[in-house]
Amino acid sequence: MEDEQAIELEKKDIPQNPREFRYSRHYILPSMLRKYQAFFPEARPLDIKFHEEPIYEKKAVCELHSKARWRRYLFMLLID
Q1: What is the pLDDT of residues 21-55, one digit of tens each?
Q2: How far is it, in rounded angstroms, from Cα 37 to Cα 25?
């Protein structure tokens, strides 16, 4: 019973169209990730799908950095 209520609460807050996903503070679709973004390896999608696409929480998104971007942050990359 509690599981059903939790799912219903999740469904209420989940955006209903692509534009709402773009501006959502809590949810994201894999197709909306930017060039230097990826999901953490342990990220799991919610049990709900949007047009056959899994829905993830935004806190599961990781910002990636290229070698040039690390240099901007003054980090030195060690290449094996």
Answers
A1: 888 888 999 999 998 899 999 999 988 889 999 99
A2: 16
- Domain range enclosing 20: 2-72
Burial label, 56 (beta-carbon count in 10 A; 0-12, 13-18, 19+): buried
Does 79 map to a domain?
no
CATH value at residue 45: 2.20.20.110
* Distance separating alpha carbons of residues 37 and 47, to the nearest angstrom: 22
Rounded to 5 degrees, what are φ and ψ at 50?
-120, 110
pLDDT, tens only, 6-19: 555 555 678 888 88
Q: Write the CB contacts of 40 (distance below 8 Å, at least 6 apart in sequence).
A: 60, 61, 62
The helix (run of H) or strand (run of E) holding residue 10 is helix 2-13
d(CA 79, CA 27): 36
